[in-house]
Amino acid sequence: MSNDPSPETLPPIDDTQTKPEETPKNAVETVLQQLKDKFDDLSSQLVLKMDDMGSRIDTLEKSLGELMQQTVSDEIIIEEAKT
């Protein structure tokens, strides 16, 4: 006969002794999930800000193009007035 206890003689497992949220593995997983959530949030904010900045740059380029055309037109008018 062996000294190993049979399944019938083992005490029942008490799940209340170790709560899942108290295990180091779960604590690490919780922290990693929180970091992932924060990273995802920051990534989304960064993409939105980059899109906004891209729109502003497009508007600025359009305004500069219009100013350059107006300057050329003004120079032509000034040259015509001199002659």
UniProtKB/TrEMBL annotation:
GO terms for molecular function: transcription corepressor activity. One of its GO terms (cellular component) is cytosol. InterPro entries: HS1-bd. Residues 1-25 are annotated as: Disordered. The keyword Ion transport does not apply. It comes from the Eukaryota. Residues 25-70 form a coiled coil. Pfam families: HSBP1. Keywords: Coiled coil. GO terms for biological process: cellular heat acclimation. PANTHER family: HEAT SHOCK FACTOR BINDING PROTEIN 1. Belongs to the HSBP1 family. This is 5058_t:CDS:1.
